[in-house]
Amino acid sequence: MIYAIFTWHGIFLSVTLAMIDFNTVFPALITDLGGSKIVFGVLYSIMLGAPYILSFLFGHFLSSHRYRRKFLILGIYLRAFAFLGMATVTYFFGELHPQIVLASFFAWILLFSLSGGLAGISYNDIIGKLVPKGKRGTLFATKQFASSFAAFGGGLIVARVFGAQTLSFPVTHAATLFIGFSGLIIASLSFWLIREPASPVAEVARPSLLFMLRRVPEILRGNREFARFIIVENLSSFGLMVMPFYMIFAREQFAVGDVYIGRYLLYQIAGTILSNLVWGWIAGRLGSKRVVRICLTLGATIPLVALGLSHLGANLFAITFFLVGFVMSGRKVGFEPYLLDIIPSSERTVYLGIRGTMNFLVVLLPFLGGILIHLVGYVPVFVLVSAMMLISSFLLRRKIAHQGT
Q: N or C: less crowded end of the chain, CB within 10 Å?
């Protein structure tokens, strides 16, 4: 039953996220609205970083509530409302007043991201309560496998919408955003079936936020593997930083049209589907940590592959997106189960909040990436990303003693 609940959500969430895929559809939307690389970098920083900025506050807030399902569902509905808002302003103002749409997106993306942060901490905490240690990697791999096929269906929808000769901007983007709104509402339905056990909550007054902030250094010293995880995840953000710029790079390098949005998205999803067989096997036999290590190493090769394929034409460049899908799937199967395995269950929301708030490079890098690409071009930035990904993989290979867990 638990697997079915989370798989249902994963399936429809994947269809939804295909409608605003951050590596293909969303960059194309911002470009169609006349946004620059810097504007896109700022929006992408908000999209990725806003949940992390307030995650410690979310974690502290949730730590005083025995049941977190209602906050998960609330976060999903707020995110759906953000989809509906983006679809509405794009449809009515996208053609004649694109700058109004771009300006409104700063608010919609902020709502989209913050609500996702609240839902994400609640989601991971509920999984930690319902799924025992050792089986979480299998759950994530199973969910990811089913979700990948759903994402492929979403990719086909995107390809059909952007390939239709009877539809054009802004109707194309408004339609996919509205489909995303519908998909999130359907995805949330399964969570109403969860029978959530109560979380332990101290009978005494909840510690103040300032007191919890002062505990952060103590927690990091006491759990060195958790501290290293934060460092590695920050460095791995270099890979996330550059992913959405591959689509912009392809548009500038090959002058590809909207038809390539769906085409590249399908290649990305195909990489996700095929990789699930690999990641599921590795997670089940070697553990989630090994998944993360291999994922980081593979992620270091993608920018170099992109540079090599840039001389071979738009069609072969699709291999870049296939590899992006491979790595994105590995991140989902590896990072979250590995984190849940190394943090104490009694303070799970607190640790999840610390992890999010200290993942500050996720906030900065997309914005800096847009500026750096604008100033020095793609080649130096792609090479930098490869180097940082290799460093993060190396750090994870070192063995350390466990303390405080």
A: N
